[in-house]
Amino acid sequence: MPRLILPLPLLLPLHALAVSSEIPDTTGALVQTILGLGLIIGILVLGLYLLRRAGLARPQAGRLLQVRGSVAVGPRERVVLVEVGERVLVLGVAPGRVNALDSLDVNELPSADDNQRPGSEDFQRWLKRTLERRQS
After folding, report:
1. What's the whole-model pTM score?
2. Which distant-in-sequence residues (6+ apart) come within 8 Å of 108 by Cβ?
């Protein structure tokens, strides 16, 4: 009879012999946590990008400054009209520099009802006449 008892443990499946020392599978939980965190961060980045594109990211303090128009005079240089209260500043803007070219009253500018768009040919002619008048 002792011969029959010895081979019996060999016939049992291995998981039946294992003591309850199972290691929990944490790989799935870790992957799920990382994917969830990545999704949340992606949603936040997308939301900030959309806010910036819509112009809602920067609060505007009472609309003290308003850009009335601009025209490119070089690859990285522009002439910009900025309205500040009752004055309009004509600024030369280049990388790292802003120069005041002239200062005008708001009444001297054509109104928006005149169908003139910033950057149009009429704006360029007006700016050229204004700068020539200032130089003479």
Report:
1. 0.41
2. 88
The answer to whether 70 touches 119, Cβ cutoff 8 Å, is yes
Sheet holding 65-72, edge to edge: 65-72, 78-84, 87-94, 97-105
Q: Which residues of 4-23 are buried (b: 16+ CB within 10 A; e: fewer)?
A: eeeeeeeeeeeeeeeeeeee
Cα–Cα distance, 119 to 117 (Å, whole number): 6
Rounded alpha-carbon distances, angstroms, from residue 13 to 8, 20, 100: 11, 14, 89
What pLDDT digit, counting tens, does each position of 35-57 carry?
999 999 999 999 998 888 877 65
- Cα 87 to Cα 19, 64, 79, 106: the distances in Å are 87, 11, 16, 6
Q: pLDDT per residue over 10-41, tens digit each?
A: 555 555 555 555 666 788 888 999 999 999 99
**Rg of the chain on CA atoms, in Å:** 37
Please state the φ and ψ torsions of residue 105, each to the nearest 5 degrees. -80, 155
Distances, alpha carbon 28 to alpha carbons 18, 38, 66, 90, 101, in Å: 23, 15, 55, 62, 65
Strand-pair partners of 88: 83, 104
